[in-house]
Design goal:
The protein has 209 residues and is α+β, with helices and mostly antiparallel strands. Among the domains are: 38-73; 94-178, P-loop containing nucleotide triphosphate hydrolases (Rossmann fold), CATH 3.40.50.300. The protein has helices at 2-6, 30-72, 135-142, 165-170, 186-190, 199-208; strands spanning 94-101, 112-119, 150-155, 158-159. Strands 2-1-3-4 form a four-stranded antiparallel sheet, with helices on one face. Strand 3 (150-155) and strand 4 (158-159) form a beta hairpin. It starts with a helix and ends with a helix. Mean pLDDT is 80; it is low at 1-5 and 8-26. Its main location: membrane.
Length: 209
Amino acid sequence: LYYGFWLIEVDPKSFDSTGGGDCLLSTVSVGPLMIPSMTLVCLLVALGSNASVTADAKAAMAAASSLFERIDRVSELNPFSKDGMKPKGVNGAIRVQDVCFAYPSHPDYHVCRQYSLSVKAGSVCALVGPSGSGKSTLVALLLRFYDPFSGVILIDGFDIRNVNLAWLRRQFGYVGQEPTLFHGTVADNIRMGKTLATPEQVQAAAKDA
């Protein structure tokens, strides 16, 4: 705006000794006078638009902070650990004895309380029950996504906590209720569990699932 007012000239002859006088506009075109005004308008519009973006940016920063906190969190169960026994073979006999468990997000609600189950090797077992009764939880415990608070889970007589975690999970074929597909082909997704699997092994795994 200062530039616009600077373009307005004051006729010094029009001032009297008392300091009064008239301001006279010089012969200046309208264009130069409009430049500072329009610049200010554009600046205010830009600032107004950035106000909403700032709120979104703060929300995005908060979400990103939570996301990176989860990514950086170290799991208590290291799937790449070399510790634990690796039995030469597996028959598939499963025994769950007096297992108690509650999810960390709801520590006061015990999904499994003194839960026991025996499944013979080579047999087919169906777990039937209402939502929240512990069907999926039992599978998560078998794969050691979690460890029970108390009790023991045995496979062929071996406590799964003493078995190498990577070896244990390779013995299972798991299809979740809501499977998530990564970018790539179906074969690429199947190979997530065994990156060096041959096409024949991939096809066999798909048929078994």
